[in-house]
Request: fold
Amino acid sequence: MDFRNSLPGRRTFLGSLSLAPFFMTRGAFAQELTETPSCTEGPFYPDKMPLDTDNDLLMINDAITPAVGEITLLSGRVLKPSGEPVRNAFVEIWQCDANGSYRHSQGSIPTADTNFQGYGRFMTDSKGAYFFRTIKPVPYTLANVPRSPHIHIAVSTNGRRVLTSQIGIIGDPLNAKDIVFKDLDSKALSTLMINFSPLPGSNIGELTANFDLVLGHTAFENEEGKLRGTIGKPEGL
Reply:
C-alpha cells in the first residue's frame, strides 16, 4: 500500500507528540529492571549529519514526498535500574531505508531512498519517554555482509554516550545467523527483540513498537567523559 498521499502533515505530527498514547506512566517497580545490553555501534552511524535530524524520519524538513516503507511509531522510555525515568536523555536512532541503504558514504547504494532521513534524535520528557516515526527495519547486505532487520539506538546523558544497542524483530528467521545477534546469549538477545504490531484504528497500515532502555548503574557513577557516537572510527557491523 502506498501511504504517500495519506500521511498526516509534518507539523501536525511534530506538534502532537505530547498527546501520544505511548507516554503513560508506569507504576513503581518492586525490583530492579534488567539492564539493556550494549551492541556494536556499527560502521554506518552518519559520517555527515543530514540537514534534518528530528524524530520524524519519514519526511525531510518540509518535503512533500515521504519515505517508502511500513510506517512505524517507535516509542519507549529511558529508565534507571530502579524504574525511575531519566529525563533529558538524548536518544538517537539510525537505520537503513527500505532499499537497504544508510545515510553514510560507505553504506549508501544507488537505489537509496533520498526521502528517508535515516537518522533522528529526541530528548526524553519528564517521564523518560521518547518517540520516533520511522519505518519497520528491513534486512540488507552491505560490503558482502548480510544483516537481519534492526534499528540502531543510543542514549547519551550529561554530554556523553552511556548506551549503544540495536533493536531487532521477534521471530525474524534471519536473527539466528545474524553476525551481531548470534553472538549474544539468549537472555540478552531476548531483551533486544520487539514486536512490530498494527496500530489500532490506523487506516494507513501504521505499526507500533515499544522499546524501553534500562541504563546500568555505571551510567550515573561518572558524569565526565566525551560523547560517543560522533563521527569517527567504525566499530564493527
